[in-house]
Specification:
- It contains one helix and two strands; from the N terminus they run ββα.
- The chain is elongated, with a radius of gyration of 17 Å.
- The protein is 22% helix and 8% strand.
- The C terminus is likely disordered.
- A two-stranded antiparallel sheet has the order 1-2.
- The chain has 73 residues and is of the alpha+beta class.
């Protein structure tokens, strides 16, 4: 568990966190052949550029549960 970090500005104190989940359409496996590595690099680069902290990042196959195209009725 990460420690709580609070930011302040003039008369407010806040702690803002986001949870982002990306699941492609039909749960296709897109993050293969170096794409996952490049995605991680881009997220870290953008975090540095905009001065925010990535607390935890997991890039894997948790969303890949089906074979691709949904079955027809």
């Amino acid at each position: 568990m990460s420690k709580r970090i609070y930011h302040s500005h003039h008369n407010i104190v806040y702690s803002c966190k986001y949870h982002v989940v990306f699941c492609p359409k039909y749960r296709r496996k897109l993050l293969v052949d170096g794409v996952a590595t490049r995605l991680k690099e881009l997220v870290e680069q953008i975090a540095e550029e905009y001065q925010f902290e990535v607390i935890e990042m997991e890039i894997g196959s948790r969303c890949n549960g089906t074979s691709g195209v949904p079955a027809e009725s």
